[in-house]
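I have been asked to look over a protein record a colleague put together. Alongside the sequence sits a line of tokens, each denoting a local backbone shape. I have pasted the whole thing underneath without changing anything:
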Amino acid sequence: MKDFVGPIDYANELLFHNGTIYFALISGLLYTAILKKKGYAQFFISKLKFVVLPYLFFTLFYSIFDDKSQDFFVLHSSLKNYLNVLPRNLIYGKAMFVFWYISVLFFLYLVTPLLDYLLNIKKWGNLLIAFVIALPLLVRREEVMELYNGDFLSFHNMIYFTGAYVAGMYIASNLEQSLAWIRKNKVFLMVLVVVTSIAIVFIKLNKIDRIGVFSVYSTLFYIQKIVLSVLVLLFFKNLGDKQPKWLQPIAKDAFAIYFLHVFFMGIFIVYLGNLKYFVIIAKFNSLLIGSFYLVFSILFSMLTVWLFRKIFGKYSRMIVGS
């Protein structure tokens, strides 16, 4: 987690640092609510077709760029160099830095039947599920750059995000009852978000984190993001038919956006990076440029998905994920 230098940085870090927890929780929720009834065989087949194959495609594509270069989009000097880095990129998710989560995602898919079994144990199931959800409080997750600078699969991160995944599965196992509990306790949950956010800022400013193998950062962010996730879930549930229509196509293309958005952000940085030195907007650089990157990386990602759908039809999802 980087140092705070202004209110925009505070807001960005508090809302989005460790934001992969949102994705993990939603994945667990969708499994129980939608995918479970299709059976394990169909579940694994769908993940092979719509997650593994797009990952292979994008790894093959992104690996043509030399990640050791100081500049963006520098091609490898030879086919031999490309083939040398390919196995490493496939195994460790090194083709693009956001791919670190793919190994975690594969782990979550593999343990889904076990977690589903625990969820359905009548006598001890709830206790075991509570243990799995709470275990990340004691586990320090490795940060993105730690993973990107080394060649290893993070068992810590697998455990850390399993907690959020199981939380989503548990919520969806009795969705209306879960939402009723969240609604009843929403004031307490909002206070908890505020308290953990203040604690995160305090700890960062005072450079407090590690207590032995224990990470205060990881614990506080885990609590904060889990609680934020359920509050956002309640918010959209309360909106009902008034949910913004423009979010639907973004949600539909979400996985492809995950694969594509950093590529377009890299292009914007190459050609528009000097805007940060534009004096007139200097005070608002982070907000303006960050908003631009966010909006247009999503738009260009969705445009790419549209083109792939036009060319490949239903097979587009097996190539780019949507």
Remarks:
- The chain is about 70% helix and 0% strand.
- The first strand starts at residue 210 and ends at 211.
- The chain has a mean pLDDT of 87.
- The beta strands are 210-211, 214-215.
